[in-house]
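Hi R.,

Here's the chain you asked about this morning:
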Amino acid sequence: MFRADYYYEERSMTIAIIIIILSWFFYRRHIPVQGVREIDLQSLTKEDVAIVDTRDFQSSSRNSINQAFCMPLSYLKRHYHEIPEKDVIIVAEDRIEKNLSARILKGRGIQVIGYVLMNNESWLN
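And here is the predicted structure, written out as tokens:
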């Protein structure tokens, strides 16, 4: 009887760990970052902020944005120190990319004030 209790206790612990990991994964990708709101780029003066384009190189080169600092999401952790020391606006392809980028940059001490999703193509050259 002791072995059966141990087995169920171990199994319950494994399930709990899996649920915690899946919850963390869901949170990082799908829950919006506080204080980061959608921005209208045309209403800002571009000297006030650094625009960081986190889309992949193919998307950002196809639909470029003037004065944007191109740094794909996969490069942010390694090259975040190259971003100018200004408030940052993120340009992303979708909400998941926006959430991940904002979390990475905020975790490195960079002030992210807003984002632009490229579903709205009025910012293109």
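One quick note: DSSP finds four helices and five strands in the chain.

Cheers,
M.
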